[in-house]
Design goal:
136 residues; alpha/beta; 5-stranded mixed beta sheet; two-stranded parallel sheet
């Protein structure tokens, strides 16, 4: 499956590049995140990003294609991740795949056991225009 085009904010790109510098390129999830940053079709100011695009600290509603199961997730920095609360790290496979996605687009979510789930982004429920709080 071809990855959908993505839009990122300059602020998110700047902060995520700082995160990569801090955790190191060999850390789990960094390579996938760097691929996402590199393939951004458009990088815009945080005041220009459409409300339908996933940015850092966005809360989203996704549906798994085959089961119809709904997920309510928030894309966060690693220190704020908590799977029980639906807070997904940007360094998790689904986290980096969600970044920059637009409502209506699909992603593949590598699940435990080697299974791949197909998720559709149904809505961006909340999107902090400034990327939300940031500390590493």
């Amino acid at each position: 499956m071809t990855a959908p085009s993505i839009i990122l904010t300059r602020l998110d790109v700047q902060r995520l590049e700082q995160l990569i510098d801090r955790v190191g390129e060999s850390s789990p999830g960094v390579e996938a995140l760097q691929r996402e940053l590199d393939r951004a079709e458009e990088v815009v100011g945080h005041d220009e990003v459409p409300a339908t695009v996933v940015t850092m600290n966005s809360s989203v509603h996704c549906r798994e294609e085959s089961s119809g199961k709904d997920y309510h997730l928030t894309l966060v920095y690693p220190k704020d991740a908590n799977a029980d609360q639906g807070k997904i790290s940007i360094l998790a496979p689904v986290g980096s795949a969600l970044l920059g996605l637009q409502v209506g687009q699909h992603i593949d979510w590598p699940a435990p056991g080697g299974k791949t789930l197909k998720l559709e982004l149904l809505s961006v429920e909340a999107q902090p225009k400034d990327g939300g709080p940031f500390t590493l």
